[in-house]
């Protein structure tokens, strides 16, 4: 049933046993992915290796791009790229460039959902990728190179 699918997908129920809205769900998922992206892009500190290095971002991107996009998918891809995109591009170079081109030219067109979330996510990700494809750079996430560390 739809309710079972939404439960497996991670939707939560409130005190009135109502499922959270798509907007709240999307914000929560993007927040969790933002934390994941921040962790994987963190460089080794004090000689200690990051236990979740950047290859986890690459693996996540590869997995999501190999699935049919859902309404939330572009939002999640942009969340990861806006935080860990620079580190992933530095680590994977031309392979990452090819992946970003494929996301822009092939994967986004597979998103057929016309919900407001899907349209907004698709549009925002397309703009993000167009800026990258024109400049060849992904702007570093604010605070990534904190000089006070």
From TrEMBL:
Q: Which residues form a coiled coil?
A: none
Quote the PANTHER family the UniProt record gives: GLE-1-RELATED, MRNA EXPORT FACTOR GLE1
Q: What is this protein called?
A: mRNA export factor GLE1
Q: Name one GO molecular function term.
A: translation initiation factor binding
Where it mainly occurs, coarsely classed, is nucleus
Keyword Isomerase listed: no
Q: Which InterPro entries did the record assign?
A: GLE1, GLE1-like_sf
**What's a BP term from Gene Ontology annotated to this protein?**
poly(A)+ mRNA export from nucleus
The entry's family comment says:
Belongs to the GLE1 family.
Pfam families membership:
GLE1
What lineage does the source organism belong to?
A: Eukaryota, Fungi, Fungi incertae sedis, Zoopagomycota, Kickxellomycotina
* Source superkingdom: Eukaryota
* Keywords annotated in UniProt: mRNA transport, Nuclear pore complex, Nucleus, Protein transport, Translocation, Transport
